[in-house]
Design goal:
Elements (H helix, E strand, L loop, with lengths): L2 H13 L9 E6 L2 E8 L3 E2 L4 E2 L5 H4 L33 E2 L9
Parallel strand pairs: 2-5
Antiparallel strand pairs: 1-2, 3-4
Length: about 100
C-alpha cells in the first residue's frame, strides 16, 4: 500500500465518526467490564465534540487510545458507534452509575 492509499484509508476511517465524543470521556475498567464516567478529556471541546490537540494528542495525552480495527474490539466505544456497528456481540461500555439489572 502506498502513502496515498494510506492517507485515503485514514480519511475514510475518520469520516465514519459521528462526533458523539463519548470515546473522549474517562473510562473505568472494573474486573474486565468497562464503564464510562462523566469526566471528559481535558482536551475535548465540549461545544464541537472535537479534540483541541488532535494532531499532538500522543504527546499531550499519552494515554489517548488511537482507534484502529484491533482497538475498537476491546469494548471502549458505545454500542451505537459506527465503528462497531458490524461487530457481533460487541461488549459496549456502560455508564458508571448504570445499575446491574442482571441480578434482578
Amino acid at each position: 500500500m502506498n502513502n496515498q492509499d494510506t492517507k485515503k484509508n485514514k480519511k475514510d476511517w475518520d469520516i465514519i465518526c459521528s462526533r458523539c465524543a463519548r470515546c473522549c470521556y474517562e473510562k473505568i475498567d472494573l474486573e474486565g467490564e468497562i464503564y464510562y464516567t462523566d469526566i471528559p478529556c481535558e482536551f475535548l471541546d465540549l461545544e464541537t465534540n472535537l479534540c483541541r490537540v488532535y494532531a499532538e494528542r500522543d504527546s499531550k495525552r499519552p494515554g489517548c487510545v488511537h482507534l484502529s480495527r484491533e482497538n475498537i474490539k476491546k469494548g471502549f466505544l458505545p454500542a451505537d458507534c459506527p465503528y462497531v456497528a458490524d461487530i457481533e456481540g460487541y461488549p459496549a461500555p456502560r455508564m458508571e452509575d448504570e445499575s446491574d439489572t442482571d441480578d434482578l
